[in-house]
Amino acid sequence: MTNVTSSDVHTTKKFKSRRQEKLALKNAQSNKSYVNQTAFRACERIYRTRLPPPDFTEVIDFENLASNTQQNLDRIVKIELKHDLTELSPLFGESRNDAKLCYTLRDFPGLVVIPQAFSPSAQKNIIKSCLRDHAKHPNLSNLDAHYVVPDGGIWNLYEKEAKGEISPEDPSYYVPLKDMSDSEDKVGVYGDAPKETNLSVLPPSQLIRRLRWITCGYQYNWLDKTYALEKRYPFPEDIGDIASAVAKAIEGVGHIEMDGSGYVNQYEGSKFKPEAGVINYYQLKDSLMAHVDKSEINMDAPLVSFSLGHSCIYLLGGTTRDVPPVAIYLRSGDVLAMCGPCRAAFHGVPRILESTLPDYLKTNPEDPDWDIYASFVNEARINVNVRQVF
Ligand code: OGA
Ligand code: MN
Fold it and tell me: Where is this region: Disordered (predicted)?
């Protein structure tokens, strides 16, 4: 990193006041300190900025093709799924208009995006199961590192609080903090996991907002970035079925250029085994840094991921952070698969987009059971990520 001194600034500009000069110096310093950042990092910074809001014109939008720049239109390739997903599993809901429509990008071979793969009611069902059924033991969550989460799960406790069934006087109301003095969890599987800060006992309605991820199937060991072979729990049936259906539908899907470059996914869908999953729960201010998912032994099998709740900006780059990433809108109901070369690409989520919750996920007097889930997704995005490990 190069240092900027006031002489750098002086030589280029004259100032009306000492204040102006100080401001210019501060600006120059902040610009110079980013000179050596990678292309991926620079892009993350752009989309993370809230004031002033970034320019979104270069974000790829598969759902409103007409709104894309010409440069993006030139890289978008419309392709066909092998099967209509709704014929493979009832969990996708009613069929879409263009049931086999999906997309890839010329310069990101192996990427497959299926916009609006799930009907609104199917989306509601998955959101419910991600909160009510999967965010509890035996699946581990970030909260387990610091809290003694009850076996019923944090969602169950939150529901009891919302229904007035428990109050702060009840012994079960506050989830206690773990005694870390003699705990192997100090290191254990959480060694390198994203850390919790501001630890304190909280009402369930606040603790539920601290839920950041759960892992299912083979449990991930954050310390050495491997899967714990001895810790394998049953894979949740619904998200396993969804991922397997996607793997079948994207068999033989891809794009080859005139010059022979490109990629077609040849992974046999019927061989796909959903073995490890991560569910990410993002609050509006959360983000996910650039990374490559490379702990799986089997890197030929596609990684299947789907989005629920608020939309996000998803960045997809190359095998190093120096490759400038492309930005893509991912919305509730979208499926994204990473196949072949795309499996080795850096990707991340620099921003959740506020005010993008679809109307059908908001509270609705005709569906009072949905209210509590609406209260959660009203400020959140959920991402389900399914991998075959072996
Ligand atoms: C991940 C991941 C992307 C998303 O969990 O590894 O890349 O869309 N998630 O949240
Ligand atoms: Mn990932």
Answer: 1-20
